[in-house]
Amino acid sequence: DTGVSQDPRHKITKRGQNVTFRCDPISEHNRLYWYRQTLGQGPEFLTYFQNEAQLEKSRLLSDRFSAERPKGSFSTLEIQRTEQGDSAMYLCASSLALPAEGYTFGSGTRLTVV
Amino acid sequence: AQRVTQPEKLLSVFKGAPVELKCNYSYSGSPELFWYVQYSRQRLQLLLRHISRESIKGFTADLNKGETSFHLKKPFAQEEDSAMYYCALGGYKLSFGAGTTVTVRA
């Protein structure tokens, strides 16, 4: 286990297309988080899972966004009908149930919508 | 609502000089605070947590509830400290500041 893995590292897509990102957390971590980061800003919370249950979604997560973690292991984040405003770095992180331990982040997926 | 403010976007110091990165927060409960660091071409990683009162890479941070601050300090900056630093607040869900870019010059 080499940490949190995200795939792909980069994605360029045309406006209106659907994209899907994958995150593989650290295997012992039962919590998984998705964040979005735009230029000059810190990461912004999108959603998180405890095992397979999606427990919270930010209002930033419009109806075009959906996230799943079907077996409590890897997670996918799908964006439908992409818009230029969706261009950002999408970060995945995982943690143990005790959040005070901090998160372990993946390298992120950089999405560019043209 | 929880909010984190990092008032400095950029901070430039000479090697060997002290460095202090400011972080202020707003939170109604008992805060959990963190500093994360991102070195060039590397992923975001945890630097330190207020609950552990530890010193990592010579950095310390003290939680001041009266001033609602959690400033990060290092007495003698090194060139390898050049990075982006984020202050973060929260428990299961972290709120991040906008970050401070630190450049340590020789």
Number of helices in the DSSP assignment of chain A = 0
Q: Radius of gyration of chain B, rounded? A: 13 Å
- The end-to-end span of chain B amounts to 41 Å
The helix/strand order of chain B is EEEEEEEEEEE
Judged by helices, strands and strand pairing, the structural class of chain B is mainly beta
End-to-end separation of chain A: 35 Å
- Fraction of residues in β-strands of chain A: over 45%
Describe the sheet with the most strands of chain B: 6 strands, mixed
The share of residues in helices of chain B is: under 10%
Helix/strand structural class of chain A: mainly beta
Quaternary structure classification? heterodimer
Helical proportion of chain A, percent range: under 10%
Runs of chain A in which pLDDT lies below 50 for 5 or more consecutive residues are: none
- What is the radius of gyration of chain A computed over CA atoms, rounded to a whole number of angstroms? 13 Å
- The helix count of chain B comes to 0
Q: Which residues of chain B form runs of ≥5 with pLDDT under 50?
A: none
Number of strands of chain B: 11
Descriptive overview:
The complex is a heterodimer of chains A (114) and B (106). With 114 residues, chain A is mainly beta. Chain A has no helices and 11 strands. Chain A has strands at residues 5-7, 10-13, 19-24, 31-37, 44-50, 53-57, 65-68, 75-79, 88-95, 104-105, 109-113. In chain A, strands 2, 4, 5, 6, 9, 10 and 11 form a 7-stranded mixed β-sheet that branches. Chain A has a 4-stranded antiparallel β-sheet with strand order 1-3-8-7, with no helix packed on it. The mean pLDDT of chain A is 93. Chain B has 106 residues and is an all-beta fold. Helix content of chain B is 0%, strand content 48%. In chain B, the strands form 3 sheets. In chain B, strands 2, 5, 6, 9, 10 and 11 form a 6-stranded mixed β-sheet that branches. Chain B has a 3-stranded antiparallel β-sheet with strand order 3-8-7, with no helix packed on it. A two-stranded antiparallel sheet of chain B has the order 1-4. In chain B, a hairpin with a 6-residue loop joins strand 5 and strand 6 (45-49). The termini of chain B are far apart. The model of chain B has no long low-confidence stretch (mean pLDDT 93). At the A-B interface, strand 5 and strand 10 of A face strand 6 and strand 10 of B.
